[in-house]
Structure formats: structure tokens, C-alpha cells
Amino acid sequence: MALTELLRRSGGITRTSVLLRAGVTRGELRSAFSNGQVRRPRKGWVALPGADPELMTAARRGLLLTCVSQAARAGLWVLAAPRHPHYAPPNPHSHVVTGPGVVHWRAPPVPRAPGQLEDPLENTLVLVAECQPYEASLAIVESALNQGLTSIPALDLLPSPRLRALLKKATPFADSGVETIFRSRLGWLRIPIRVQTHLSGHRVDVLIGERLIVQVDGKQHSGAQRDGDILHDAELRRQGYEVIRVTYSLVVHRWELVQEAVLSAIARGLHLRRSA
């Protein structure tokens, strides 16, 4: 198989030893380096010129991406992108190049194989739990659960008290981190709060008590989707539910207004089933 094809199958960057085991000769590598077909981010590594910059930096520094940086790369719900990348060394004795970013030296529960540039999910979630604020880490963990990438029993076996504490509050049903944040911030109420409940043929974001519904519009919410949601709200109200619709921005940045609206509705008993 051609050198460039092997690199593409490895995400554009891999260790020299991997290519040699696959049948690439040292002569082919020297030729590829000389004509600019490939680059050397660090001794022992080979990359295509257009390789992922984050992976190139990790390889150049002798590190791998982890924690909130890797969570975002894996498609998990992240409240805010980190100001600096989060890295980990392949092993405690690794020689790493200093530079901007956070380096986690904690021993990983899952051993890191040579040549990895992205931490396994279990290591990523352990570091998220031990590094990120409570709401942000709970949202990331619930995102992994919701996508079926792992499970509460599997994560509960990992040696991390902080992760296990998160799992006591976690649910796999939250469809987005903003639902996680909403539920977490009202967790002090002694009223059932359920997410992604089926009502009137559709899921509702949050159901408080028996009939108070809170719908949270995402960052992109317009057109046919918004029209359908408004019609669904009308049907829910016809069936006797109380509906409050808020936005992502209000929940994340103006929480006091959201909380006031919810608590006002609860004070008027709008979360309770109407008597016949």
C-alpha cells in the first residue's frame, strides 16, 4: 500500500515504526521527505502536510490530547472550548516539550498504547471529572452516556472518586448539556425533574412535577423546526400542560431569569396535576 494511503488511514499522522511494519521502506521514506510529500513533526513520526494541526502539535511535543480538549474532538457536548489545549504524556517517564496548555500527569486507568495522540474515552472522562467545574463535567459525562459511548456501570468501575460522584447524579437521557445544566441548577427542589420525556407524540426537554414543561431552544432554532415546536406547545397546552420556552443563551448566561420564571410557575401550582 502507498505511503500516503497508509497515512490517510492513520488520520494523516503516525509513527515511523507503524509504516515500516506495514512494508514501507526507509528509502521510500527518505524520498518522501526530500520531495515534500510528508513531514516529520518529531523524530519517529511521519505526517502528511495537511495533517490535523492539533495532532501535529501533540506529536511535536510528545503528548496526546485529553480531558476537555479530547471530549470536544470526540463530539461530546462541551460548555465552552478550553482557552488552552489539555494534554497528557504517554507515560510518566515521557520526555515532553514545554509549551502552552495544561498537561495532566495523573496515571491513567486505561494504559496508553505507544503512538496514541488521543486519549481513550475512559481516561478523558476521568480527567474531565477531576479538572472541569461540576456542571461542565456532568454535561460531558452525560453526553457520552446519551450517545451510547459508555455506560454508568462501566464508568463506575474506574478508580476516580470524583467521576463516581458525578455518576450518582448522571442520566443517559439528557439530549444536550443545557438540559444537564438546567436539571443540575434546580436539583435542590424536592420536585421530580425529568428530561426527554415523551408527551403528545414528541419529546419534551424538561418535565417538572406532573405538568410544567420547559422547552430549551438550541443555538440554531428557526424555520420549520421552530414552527413545529410552536404547534407542539399549543397541543401540550390544550392537553392541560403549562409550557415555558427559553433559549440556550438564557439558561447559560441569564439563569436568574429562567429560575424566576420556573419558581413563579411552581408557586402558582402549575407543576401539579389539575384536579378533576
Strand order of the largest sheet: 6-7-8-9
Low-confidence stretches: none
Distance from first to last alpha carbon: 74 Å
Strand content: 5-15%
Q: Structural class of the helix and strand makeup?
A: alpha/beta
SS element count, helices: 13
Number of domains: 3
> Strand tally, please?
9
- Rg calc: 24 Å
Plain-language structure description:
It holds the Pfam family DUF559. It comes from Leucobacter muris. InterPro entries: DUF559, Restrct_endonuc-II-like. This is DUF559 domain-containing protein. The protein is built from 13 helices and 9 strands. The chain is an alpha/beta fold and 276 residues long. It has 3 domains: 49 residues, Arc Repressor Mutant, subunit A, CATH 1.10.10; 104 residues, no CATH class; 91 residues, VSR Endonuclease (Endonuclease, Chain A), CATH 3.40.960.10. α11 links the parallel β8 and β9.
Attribute tags:
elongated, 276 residues, 4-stranded mixed β-sheet, 14% strand, alpha/beta, 3 domains, Endonuclease, Chain A
What is the topological layout?
Elements: H1 3-9, E1 13-15, H2 16-21, H3 26-34, E2 45-47, H4 53-61, E3 64-65, H5 67-73, E4 86-88, E5 102-103, H6 121-131, H7 134-146, H8 152-156, H9 161-167, H10 177-185, E6 193-199, E7 202-208, E8 212-217, H11 223-238, E9 242-247, H12 248-253, H13 255-267
Helix pairs in contact: 5-6, 6-7, 7-10
